[in-house]
From TrEMBL:
Domain of life: Bacteria
Annotated localization: Membrane
Short name of any one Pfam family annotated for the protein: DoxX_2
Keywords noted in UniProt: Membrane, Signal, Transmembrane, Transmembrane helix
Topology versus the membrane: Multi-pass membrane protein
Signal peptide as annotated in the record: 1-23
First-listed, main subcellular location of the protein, grouped into a coarse class: membrane
Species: Streptomyces althioticus
Protein name: DoxX family protein
Membrane-traversing stretches: 45-66, 73-91
Length: 121
């Protein structure tokens, strides 16, 4: 973990934290998650799998930044999260659910920042 830029640590920790929090909300069946999922056409049955993807992304990010030899895993995890949130935005746009588009856009921004910092560090 030596010589890891502070910006990379902070952004990666933020990205991992928001993904763990959202995965927990998915797994708990939080009211806002169920309502949003129904609005954008995501079946409740998908939520555990989506939560697992978020958790895997968070774990990969953290391992990639904390273990130098696993940096490629961090890049892959960040890239996977970017694709995940692009898909979330596509679901919102397809369903014309724009009132809360800022949330997946924020998660996409954190994942993209993590990807950028991981690949350039």
């Amino acid at each position: 973990m030596t010589d890891v830029p502070l910006a990379l640590l902070v952004v990666t920790a933020l990205t991992a934290a928001v993904n763990v929090a959202m995965a927990a909300a998915d797994l708990a069946g939080a009211r806002f998650v169920l309502a949003n999922s129904a609005q954008v056409g995501v079946a409740r049955l998908w939520l555990p799998g989506l939560a697992a993807l978020k958790l895997a992304g968070a774990a990969g990010l953290l391992l990639g930044v904390l273990v130098g030899a696993l940096r490629p895993l961090g890049v892959a995890a960040a890239g996977g999260l970017v694709l995940f949130y692009l898909g979330a935005i596509a679901f919102h746009l397809r369903a014309r659910v724009l009132h809360n588009l800022a949330f997946p856009a924020f998660y996409l921004a954190t994942a993209a920042a993590s990807l950028t910092l991981t690949t350039t560090s």
